[in-house]
Write a structure and sequence with these properties.
One of its GO terms (molecular function) is transcription cis-regulatory region binding. With 198 residues, this protein is mainly alpha-helical. The chain has twelve helices and no strands. Helix 2 packs across helix 7, helix 5 runs antiparallel to helix 6 and helix 9 runs antiparallel to helix 11.
Length: 198
């Protein structure tokens, strides 16, 4: 099976994975059987088996593809921004945009299935690490006050996880986009170097 996963995808397989990702983002994956997926995607089960050995492994592959693609798109946006405050804002706005593509059912299914939850948790840790880098850069440049960058980033990471799982947004009665905007304000206001502002 490992060699199957590492084999380069054909154009048809790449297109099929993109369609499968769109379907799973919109409707989740737990309730689908391979027969259901084959019918919805107008392909054979053997075509799906060429992508993964089981429905569960297919879910892991598609969820991984979504998070990897999201991270790449966000990083492309961040790369165009020079100001460290702008990088944090762009990063969080990009995360909000990417998350808007995912249905509540998708997030629930990812959280309920240990292998996809693991992918999700790695993504949240990577987000916290990326924010730590931005914060450290801002402290070094004097844009932000001298703070414990890892602690701030880990706190932000927990809030991102709360947004992604829907817990925070449900409790606060806000959209994901509003929550990410508020997180950006919280971080940037909390990090502001008062001497620089003066």
């Amino acid at each position: 099976m490992t060699s199957m996963v590492r084999r380069p995808l054909t154009g048809r397989q790449t297109e099929l994975l993109a369609r499968l990702e769109a379907l799973v983002l919109a409707e989740g994956f737990a309730h689908f059987t391979l027969d259901d997926l084959a019918a919805r995607l107008h392909c054979s089960k053997s075509t799906l088996y060429a992508l993964a050995a089981s429905k569960e492994q297919l879910a892991v592959r598609v969820v991984g593809r979504y998070f990897k693609g999201a991270a790449q798109r966000i990083e492309e946006q961040v790369a165009a921004v020079e100001d460290v405050r702008g990088r944090i804002g762009t990063y969080l706005a990009g995360a909000a945009d990417e998350l808007r593509r995912a249905s509540a059912q998708f997030i629930a299914d990812v959280s309920a299935f240990a292998p996809t939850r693991s992918t999700y948790e790695r993504n949240a840790r990577a987000a916290a690490e990326r924010l730590r880098t931005f914060i450290s850069d801002g402290v070094r440049e004097g844009v932000f006050r001298d703070v414990h960058a890892t602690l701030f980033a880990e706190m932000a990471g927990l809030l991102i996880e709360g947004i992604q799982t829907g817990v925070l947004t449900r409790r606060a009665g806000v959209t994901d986009s509003e929550a990410f905007t508020a997180l950006g304000e919280l971080l940037l206001d909390g990090l502001q170097n008062e001497r620089r502002r003066a």
